[in-house]
Amino acid sequence: MLEAAMADDARRIGRLVGDAVRSMGVVRAWTEIISPTLVEIGREWSAGRFRLEAEHLASEAMIAELRAHTRRFEDPDPPAPTVILASAGNDEHTLPVFGLEAALAESGIQPLMLGARLPAESLASVAARVRPEAIFMWASMACPQEEMLWDVLGRARHDSAVLLGGPGWSHDVARRKGLQDALDVPDLGTALGRICAAVGHSGTYPPVT
């Protein structure tokens, strides 16, 4: 995939990701192939050996293939969503959220995907309408203490299991905001397992370490 990205070959990246998720399942493909590739891309970019546009090309190709995999499991008459997936309001790095969406679809759960940079007031509005059993929020960038999202998640926890993924969450702030019972999910397999447990769904894979 690194070679393909450097050659501006998005189609080859897509084929590699697609082959991996279909043959290995999303969690294993993410853990063994996609995530290590992203780490290596970051390392190469920091060293000045990887172009920024190649990183964007790789990310977009991966997202496209993960979403295509998600669509393979779409129900023509889906039930009401029980899980909300979103990224914090200041976050544009959504690739892990698309990975989780694909893993949930593969396990028989069709979440409500709200994507990048979701304002806190929008999360509050959709959570009040949908009343999900679980809310997963991704943050790769720091979520400041004054961010309204903390209060929204604090209120939501009474109706929904709140799962926090990514390095942007501060455990000290979480405790001060009444979110000490929120579930911290360190990897995709753990996130999948805990969401399935929260919604009472048995079709889950064990966490991959």
Secondary-structure map with pairings?
Blueprint: H1 2-6, H2 10-24, H3 26-46, H4 52-71, E1 83-87, H5 95-106, E2 112-113, H6 120-130, E3 134-138, H7 149-156, E4 161-165, H8 171-176, E5 183-185, H9 188-198
Parallel strand pairs: 1-2, 1-3, 3-4, 4-5
Helix pairs in contact: 2-3, 2-4, 3-4, 4-5, 5-9, 6-7
Count, helices: 9
Overall CATH class of the largest domain: Alpha Beta
Structural domain count: 2
Name the shape in a single word: globular
Mean pLDDT: 90
C-alpha termini separation: 22 Å
Helix fraction, binned, reads 40-55%
Provide the CATH architecture of the largest domain: 3-Layer(aba) Sandwich
Radius of gyration: 17 Å
**How does the helix and strand content classify structurally?**
alpha/beta
CATH topology of the largest domain: Rossmann fold
- Element order: H for helix, E for strand: HHHHEHEHEHEHEH
Low-confidence stretches: 204-209
Strand order of the largest sheet: 2-1-3-4-5
The CATH superfamily of the largest domain is known as Cobalamin-binding domain
Total strand segments: 5
The profile of the biggest β sheet is:
5 strands, parallel
**How much β-strand is present in the residues?**
5-15%
Q: Which features characterize this protein?
A:
209 residues, alpha/beta, globular, Cobalamin-bd_sf, Cobalamin B12-binding domain-containing protein, Cobalamin-bd, Meth_synthase_dom
